[in-house]
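User: Some background: our group keeps a shared notebook of sequences we're curious about, and every so often someone picks one and asks for a predicted structure to add to the entry. Today it's my turn. The entry only has the sequence so far, pasted here. Could you supply the structure so I can complete it?
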Amino acid sequence: MTANREKIIVRTSVIGILANIALASFKALVGLLSNSIAIILDAVNNLTDALSSVVTIIGTKLAGKPADKRHPFGHGRAEYLSALVIAIIIIYAGLTALIESIKKIISPSQPDYTTSALLIVGSAVVVKILLGLFVKATGKKVNSDSLVASGQDALMDSIISASTLVAAAVFLIFHISLEAYLGVIISLAIIKSGVETLRETLSKILGERVDAKIAHAIKRTVSSVDSEIRGVFDLVLNNYGPDKHIGSVHIEVPDTWTADKIDQVTRKISDAVYKSHSIIMAAVGIYSVNTKQNSAAEIRSKVSKIVHEHKDILQMHGFFVDEVEKLMRFDLVVSFDSPNMKVMYEHVVNDVKEAFPDYDVQVQFDFDISD
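Assistant: Of course. Here's the predicted structure to add to the notebook entry:
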């Protein structure tokens, strides 16, 4: 699957390179002959697209390298770095175009359009739309951020090319040149596209929240392994590239389970998650649930009521009480919307301690990392 994905990305990128070089050549010729800064900038934009596709191929090849001693989780994040480079290229092209357009506003020149030139630009619009739709759809299919970014950029280019036709029509009909001003608009559109790509890529590199649908699906898979699993919590997925995740999770199980039982179930969970979601579970943690002491449920209910009186506490889990040793432990998930998460945590813990002064209350601070 990985090898096939790499071939698809490379093949799609090569198509993009060839198409953009051809479009850039035609547009550059048309722009020079018609003295149109907008069309010349459009040609330069096509060249940056071709360069972006080259970067995509390089990034895909690097990401496809097998894991080694220095990089035991593989090289999949190289794809995010390639998307980062593409974003920088797009922003640079936009800034360069903006400078040239401003120069043309200061020192304007009259364009000289021909029918053949306009036909070439019109054909380029159609080609760019088809190329953009194809590349973006392929990128989504193989989960390639670089291809999706390139496809989106190609669709933006089609709008840019169409706008040069509008400017030409305005000049031919009203004899008003909008070339330089259109160049500014084109430049800003290019910069905006680059900034959006940069922001999305940096977000993935920094680490994003687990998609809610994926989180719920994984938790359903974990729960289905054994009917005695009381709850699934603390799902963490570390992203090492597109479709390359290593995770961990906690489950609540009866305190009567033996080490052998726990070992069997956690292995089954790892196998089930990998088969269903292609995700490696590096660890499956255990929370024990009281089954032997009748008053444990009552104590849990009282603690839960105290905890959930605070709206910034999203969840309490992993609750266990030892009435003989007078020990109570559980985890608190504090909302990121809380004005001060640490203060809220300490406030709730103190409330529980006041309600149960005879108990050693041990509370783990938890983040809202997944749905």
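Suggested note for the entry: The mean pLDDT is 88. The two ends are 29 Å apart (CA to CA).
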